[in-house]
Design goal:
about 280 residues, Rossmann fold, 12 helices, 8 strands
Amino acid sequence: MPTDKPQGLRQEQASIGGKRISFWVGGSGQPLVLLHGVAGDANLHWNRNFKRLTTGFTVYAPDLPGFGNSAPLASPTLTAYVDWLHAFLEFHKLNQTILVGHSMGASIARVYAAKSPAMVPGLVLVDGGHVPQISPTVKLLMKVPFVAGKSLNRMKRLAFDDARIKAMMHNQALCDDEFIAGVKRYEAQFIPIVRRMLVTPPPTQLTPECPVLVLWGNDDRFESADVGKQLAELIPNAVFETIENAGHMSMLDKPKEFSDLIFEYTDQLNDRKQTTTASSN
């Protein structure tokens, strides 16, 4: 799957808190921030969506810390990623932003929306958004170097196996050597992120106040559509939609259908806002 420079966007770099950050930006309209997952950088995740989304939004797609050209976090906990996102939005003076997150990026977006409701009028969770609740026993075992190292290395081998990477897609034609290499480029980030997620207490604020759209590939072999439906049931004001013939990377499998759902959702948000404004006058 080609991952050439996206049309209509420019790649920029900046320094936030003394750390380098790389991001894609382009388009016009309401700001839309795209947060990728652990299987690659921003361009790998969103390159099939950029062209359409920039026709209606000013799109920001940062490389999360440790991915692309963004410097890693000293301690990559979920809370640290949420704080980093806040700094990114403040740097760009974005105080009313729709967040779209995939997999781990969905978890970051969900926690941020719950923590800062005034900043986020809309939230889209794509094939992810759970915040793991780790048992005390697992947390204890992860502090034992031999046990943690053996367990995490096994998880990494399974996660970055060629067959496992290909299982992220329904459309196997997209899983070419370039795509697989783009995912494997970030193998080294896997263990530090997972280790910190397993031993660090999760955030307590998990319920966004804004309307939430939960999108899931109906052929997601990492987390089934039933898991996505259960997630939507946990969140008030959440609507659950499946994308047919799409896997865990549903936005790549079905870019048109994915973008159509984003536009429909934001149109509904704007209609609701206008109705509320009219009622208050």
